[in-house]
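Recap from last week: sequence in, structure out.
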Amino acid sequence: MDTISNMIIQIKNAGNAGHESVTVPYSKLKHSIAEVLKKEKFIKNAEPKSEKGKKMLSVELFMEKRVPKIKGVERISKPSRRVYTKTSDIRGVKSGYGALILSTSHGIMSGREAKKAGLGGEALFKIW
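Predicted structure tokens:
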């Protein structure tokens, strides 16, 4: 199972269904991805909470007149095929309206931050 794919698809589907928030199983990686999505203004907030003894991550979505901010996602690096990107290969997503999320040696960050810091890494997914 690809837990990152499950998380981003759950967030996208919850927005398309008109939900204000979605709850996904917690992990440090998912929490740091949610923090980057929060910095990039794709979600309002993400905070860990406990439900029935299990740690969960509650994600609040941006909705403008019941239209979700997240239109689409595309998983790049998968468990079966890892894709690594150099700093020079980092490009904008959807003419700057989207973001590329990378896993670098300095943690999870967006393509803009990684390019500014001069870092490459594993390209996790694109979101727009």
